[in-house]
Amino acid sequence: MSKQFQVIESSDLKVSTNRDTGESENQFLNEHKGADGKPLNIPNLIIIAIPVFMGGAPYRMPVRFRYHKSGGSVKFIMSIYNPEKAFEAAFKEAVDESDRIAHIHGHTRSLISLSDRWEQGSVTETRTE
C-alpha cells in the first residue's frame, strides 16, 4: 500500500441541445489523476487473510478495494467479496474440531452432525452421552 495518496479531480460538463426538438444531452465526465498527472492505477481487488472467529485460523478472502473523493478528503472502502464462503468453511472447521474434542472425551453427537443441520437451516444442537 501507500503512505501518501493524492487525488487530483477534474470535472467537465457537456450539454448539447437540439433546438428543433428541444432534446438535450448532458454528459458529465469526472476524472481522477495522481500527483504526477497520470491516471490513477489502484487495484480494485486485494486478498487478505483474517480469522473469521476470534482465535481461529486465518482465511484468505477477496476484498473489493475502492476509494471515494469527497471534498478535500479521500475515503477508502473495503468490502469482503462473498463472505459466506469463508464463514461456512470456518464454521465447518469449528464443528469438526468440536466433534474431535467431543470424541476424545467420550461424547458423541446424534446421527445428524451440527454441520449437516447448518446446511438444513437448523443449528439446534442435541448431544447424547
The largest sheet is: 3 strands, antiparallel
> Which regions are unreliable across 5 or more consecutive residues at pLDDT < 50?
none
Oligomer: single chain
Strand arrangement, major sheet: 3-4-5
The Rg value, from CA coordinates, equals 26 Å
Mean pLDDT: 79
Number of domains: 2
Q: Give the CA-based shape.
A: elongated
Number of strands: 7
SSE pattern: EEEEEHEHE
What would you call the structural class? alpha+beta
Number of discrete helical segments: 2
Query: DSSP strand (E) fraction?
Result: 35-45%
Report the end-to-end length measured between terminal Cα atoms: 53 Å
**Helix fraction by DSSP (H/I, runs of at least 4):** 10-25%
